[in-house]
Amino acid sequence: xxxxxxxxxxxxxxxxxxxxQTKRPSRRAAExxxxxxxxxxxxxxxxxxxxxxxxxxxxLAFTDYxxxxxxxxxxxxxxxxxxxxxxFLDSVQVTVTYAIVGTPIKLAAALGVAMLLNNRKxxxxxYRSLFYAPSLxxxxxxxxxxxxxxxxxxxxxxxxxDYFGTWSGGWVGDxxxxxxxxxxxxxxxxxxxxxxxxxxxxxIPNELYEAAQVDGAGPVxxxxxxxxxxxxxxxxxxxVLETINSFQVxxxxxxxxxxxxGPANSTLFYTLYLYQRGFGQGQLGYAAAMAWLLxxxxxxxxxxxxxxxxxxxxxxxxxx
Amino acid sequence: MSATILTDDxxxxxxGRGTELRRRAKRRRAGKTLLLHLGIIALAVVMLYPxxxxxxxxxxxxxxxxxxTGLIPxxxxxxxxxxxxxGIGGVSFWTFFSNSMILAxxxxxxxxxxxxxxxxxxxxxxxxxxNLFFSLMIGTLLLPFHVLIIPQFxxxxxxxxxxxxxxxxxxxxxAAEAFFVxxxxxxxxxxxxxxxxxxxxxxxxxxxxxxxxMLPLMRPVLATASIFAFIWSWNDFLAPLIYLRTPDKYPLxxxxxxxxxxxxxxxxxxxxxxxxxxxxxxxxxxxxxxRYIVEGVATQGLKG
Lengths: 320, 304
Known about the structure:
The structure holds 2 protein chains of 2 kinds.
Chain A: H1 4-7, H2 20-60, H3 77-82, H4 86-117, H5 124-137, H6 141-151, H7 156-164, H8 178-188, H9 191-202, H10 206-214, H11 219-246, H12 251-256, H13 270-280, H14 284-312
Chain B: H1 2-7, H2 17-57, H3 79-86, H4 93-124, H5 130-142, H6 146-159, H7 166-173, H8 178-189, H9 193-201, H10 206-217, H11 219-235, H12 238-243, H13 252-261, H14 268-300
Helix pairs in contact in B: 3-14, 4-7, 4-8, 4-11, 5-8, 11-14, 13-14
């Protein structure tokens, strides 16, 4: 900073001002020292709780590690065993179905409601908070218990089905119905992406819609030609975040299935199986291999999203 | 709004063609608004149904919970809450509750202290390596937590920290939740640079600038972060499930799990009452601080 010459008269601490030439290097060193001192908590946490454990789990994935017996190097055996493990394959199928079906429905609901609420003067804040509330509590054990009771044999959902004569019997015990039940729980939590969509919609200038309307564009055209492109960065953000989140669902599946992932492995989510193997059966090496596979898959998906994003995500000022 | 327009049916003093058309358009718009509001309210009712049903069910006798679609109980009782307050397995409800409180308050304090300090380094100090560390920090945002729990468990097991709160709190004091660091960095970047520059001219060091200038200005973001840290810790299930073994150290989510695990004949009433009690502080927080919470989500895309 070039403030030294005017700083000297008002300087209160540090005695007489030194000359700039001798000051610059020492100041840079002081800045570096201060930077690392302030960064210390994060740096320590990163080394001890993130980077270190990642290296350790990469090693563990190639061992037959047990908390009491210790570990033994077995090479890629964990990975080859995974693909012969029918429960693992089931857990992959469950999780992928959940992510592929649930995420778009959730985002569509979020966007739809956000558009309903946008530009509404009355009650917008109340509605926004109201729809957001499930997102805050949806992953809690309390809500999993409520969900289980609601969808149980003779629960209220069953009663509604009886009334319309469309289905009978509980959803919790029916392998064909547990997935819709879990997806409904996820969609019910559309509030978090909705709030983000609302913030994005607010950024779209109203003149664009007015001009389009003057040019005779109908609501569908206005949505596909203005709303979607202008919202694409936010849509992209929500898509990445919600997809990654959907791979990590745990508590609700655990509670609803009593920790077993049944019936017929239909709620055996990836993380639930990882927990069963690692902490239920103490096969920590096998679980570490599973965890690394998850990281790789999530990484690839994120990469694909980012790579394809330039074809459909429009940032303003890019002149496309 | 719509009511005044609908009753305004008497002829206007000077019914020119223009005003007539305008009024009709206005009335149509009011009708559309009313319809939209009705739609939104219907949706809100569906959204709220599980919560309201849970609350009302907790006042029903256990044998009347399953198979009751209606919301209004035929019979109300406080027995469920009495059972829930007794706790489970010889541990009282208040033990679980205060365990949850210790963890949630500890998390909120840890996050505020460690993340604000680290965020200051990212936002306001220029030093070699800053950009690299910043990208690494952003990278951990996308990292699935599950790849870390296994080695972390082994590590804490070796140190002998399992069955204590240390593994559950240490990350909060070491800024391991990148979300909060990122949130605070973004907030600080929007604070005017002139503030710290003029303080430096007056001879203040980084410690002085941070504590005397930044921290007071950061009050809103610290509030948002501590609310989220509290609620996430309060609802957390996986980490306590892995690390805690002694029931009298359990937080509320593990108590609830014990209820659902009990024998084949489930006491739904007590489950509902305990679920309501476990959610009560979260809902209270939400009602009190909804502005901070919703705006925190809107600006930084925090998850629920």
